Amino acid sequence: MKHVFSLRLVGIGLLLALPVGVGWWAVDMLRFQQLAGCQASAATETVEEDAVAASFYCAQVSASQQTIDGLSEAIRLARLVPADHPLAAQGDRLIEQSSQKLLELAETSFQSGNLEEAIGIARRIPVTTGAYKTADERIESWQSAWDDAQTIYSDAQASAERDQWDQAFEKARELRQLSNRYWNSDRYQELVQKIQEAKEGKAAQAKAERERQKDSAAKYTAQPDLVSNWQQDQAREAAANLDRARKLASAGTAEGLRAAMDAAGLVLYGTPRYEEAQRSVDRWNRQLQEMEDRPYLARAAQLASKGDMSSLQAAIAEASNVSFGSALYQEAQAKIGQWTDAIQKLHSQAYPERSVRNRISPADYVIPPVKTTAP
Q: Which of 100, 129, 135, 250 could pair covalently with 122 via S-S, beta carbons 3.0-4.6 A apart?
């Protein structure tokens, strides 16, 4: 082993002699020399005990690099130390320390947005270490958090595509609650910027359309003899937009209804078809609300049909997804009232000693509503 330690001393001496500006380069060179030296020593040792010591030294040098490959190599070499060898305890300690460091590097990768890399690093931790169980639990939590983040991101984009800007921004803010720097910072800022740009783009389009219509009106107004022609043009355009809206609505899909309302919204105030267009928009909006909210009430009714307290609570939570202003809001509130009374009745039967004046508020036993995706 003498040539190994001589090599280390030479490396340290070079490091001290070099200027500060090349210090990092010297550290890397020293580590390279140490690793090359210990590998050469381990390959030439003939005495078994000396060979084990040389391998353990290589493990220490590899671990000192604090890299994924270095730590993995350190674990591999340290596991070669026999259980009855004097270095066995130090070897076990090095394995645990290197495993813990691998877990830290895996967490860093996850926080940086590299999920697959993080899982790959964590999988390198030996099953025999204390860090293995933690790594396994961490992998599961990483994957769950990643799935949640992707769902939130997609939902926010979907709301933006429907021009539901408030809902889109509200959904995007849920990313800030995630314990992942990549999603709660980088992707959050990216998403908010996309939503804002889309909102401003739609506003610019609407403004351009209003200006076009205003310019068109001004042109005809400036020439009284063309007023009649302008009115006829507007009437034809309104009829075309309303006809297109009806065709879109006839598809009976949520996308068709939204597109129909957009088309009918182009019918200008003051044209003969304006009132008709507004009535159609109201009707299609109610139809869309029923289409989106009816599944909540259907699932709620199915849950409530079981009649037990937990099922009634779940039914109330499901029906609470019907938002205020929806065409089905009053119906949903009526159902919630019925199921609340049923819960109170079950509660009174279970605890007859409680007086009426101590009735429990529904808020005390109804689980908070959770917005789910309508089928």
A: 135
